[in-house]
Amino acid sequence: MTTLKGEEKIKNRKVAIDFFSNERNLLECIPGIKKIEGKRFTIEAKIGPLRAELSGQVEEYEVRENEVSNLLKVEGPGLTVMIKTRLHITEAELNWEAEYLTDGSLAKALASTIAKQAEEVSRSIISCALSKINRS
């Protein structure tokens, strides 16, 4: 399992908690998102030289005061990615940690490419969320 961590400045704790209290907001920040139906979603992703349509599902989503945690499962031909994210929201910061695990024949064949793209996706989701939280 690979772990990424970061700390980001936020302008308003309440706005951040309100944003993350709705799981759809987080899903809308996934790069390549095509469709969201409840807890299921579809994304179009570029995996190395390949383009693929991947299906995903929110396995867990929990908000407790200033803590948010979620688990997303994304699947495609020869690929399964599990992404566990934990957020801690303070008055002025968003502390985040994302862990991801890849499995499947495609994941094994393109391991370094998929690892790099998983990191880019995690950072892109955080960046998108921050831009929406810190708009004003």
Descriptive account of the structure:
- The protein has 136 residues and is of the alpha+beta class.
- It is built from 4 helices and 7 strands; from the N terminus they run E-H-H-E-E-E-E-E-E-H-H.
- The protein has helices at 13-20, 23-28, 105-109, 111-133, and strands spanning 2-9, 33-37, 40-47, 50-64, 67-76, 79-89, 93-103.
- It has a 7-stranded antiparallel beta sheet.
- The protein is globular, with a radius of gyration of 15 Å.
Please tally the β strands and state the result: 7
Low-confidence residue ranges: none
Radius of gyration: 15 Å
Q: Biggest sheet, open or closed, and with what strands and sense? A: 7 strands, antiparallel
Q: What percentage of amino acids are in beta strands? A: over 45%
Helix content: 25-40%
Spatial strand arrangement across the major sheet: 1-7-6-5-4-3-2
Distance between the termini: 36 Å
Order of helices and strands: EHHEEEEEEHH
The backbone outline, from C-alpha atoms, is: globular
Mean pLDDT score: 89
Briefly note the structural class of the backbone.
alpha+beta
What are its keywords?
136 residues, alpha+beta
Could you outline the blueprint of secondary structure elements for this entry?
Layout: E1 2-9, H1 13-20, H2 23-28, E2 33-37, E3 40-47, E4 50-64, E5 67-76, E6 79-89, E7 93-103, H3 105-109, H4 111-133
Antiparallel strand pairs: 1-7, 2-3, 3-4, 4-5, 5-6, 6-7
Helix pairs in contact: 1-4
Give a brief description:
With 136 residues, this protein is an alpha+beta fold.
